[in-house]
Amino acid sequence: MTGNQASAGHLLRLIRDGSATTRGALQRATGLSRSTVGHRLDQLFAAGWLREGAAEPVEGPGGGRPSTRLEFDAGHAVVLAADLGTRHAGAAVVDLSGRVLAERSGAMLISDGPDRVLDALARWFADLLEETGTPPERVCGIGLSVPGPVDWASGLVVQPPIMPGWDGFPIRERLQEAWARHISSEEPAAPVLVDNDANLMAYAEQRAAHRDCAAFLLVKVSTGIGAGVVAGGRLYRGIDGGAGDIGHIRLHDRPEALCMCGSYGCLAAVASGRALAAQLTEAGVATDSVSGVRDRLAAGQPDAVRLAREAGRRVGEVLVTVVTLLNPGVLMIAGELAGTPFLTGVRELLYQRAMPRTTAHLTVVTSRLGERAGLLGAAAIVVEDLYSPDRADARLAALGG
User: What are phi and psi of 368, to 5 degrees?
Assistant: First the structure.
């Protein structure tokens, strides 16, 4: 990176990812003069985005004057994050390093519709900020995870099978309005970013424990089934947010299984938490939700264990193709069904049917972040978006920098 490419935003990226953390290192990395680097760092310091850390030791004989380490100040602002499920939601205040400052979770029905749900989330956000003593003006953005396909550019949910009333709804604008109402503010609204839950879980999990994995695949099995793909450190969403919707791949031998999307034979109609709840009920073990399935599995209920293992095999059957196509280094099984019986079923089919070359370097794991993955992913996409070079430069210009 040389010349006019190395804006203040680019310098910030080098500092944030650890590529260059002193003034001298920034000069060497960018080819900029000392005075130009100094001017651009002044912009970042004036915005409150940087701080000086401990001096770095000087290598080599004779030493010299230690260089001051430059650090991204993760405490200068906060992000509000929310993770919506079909019957449950979580919300949090998160600093820019991903540290949760306060959080709340509770029952919330996605079927109540967007107006009611988004207003409730805004109220939770206001309460959480008050709990942390953080003034609303320090909120730099809001991230929202939803259980349906999202067109990233527009922020609109597109034909979500388990989100009645949300298709094409202006989520970003309505959440901004609800948030402004609850804090009685007429200030410009904080930006809202919306993405699919499996995408955000994949993003958070890959960054937390698998940063060196160039192709990372997460499969979430809960009420529905979805997947998130991180390739080269970036989320792969497809052209309009439809990538990873593996729950609606058709199974050849279950044409009678009616899915919530209206089609027959979908993987989700056979192997999701919703499907297992119905199968358990038919077997005489009354179960009304995926949470009930999880409870049955935790108790070792034989029918639940058997059905979960079989569901894992059906998902594994589809993943043979997915893994062959993507060639990931890590396959993570997450969600409420991601226990030993389900994981065993996935592994059985995957290693039985996939070519040895495909699975030779594949690691199959379960979630590290657990129920927080969606929240942390929602917060992370806000930070990565707002402090990316182009967005950072635009924001600095707006600040008069």
Answer: -95, -35
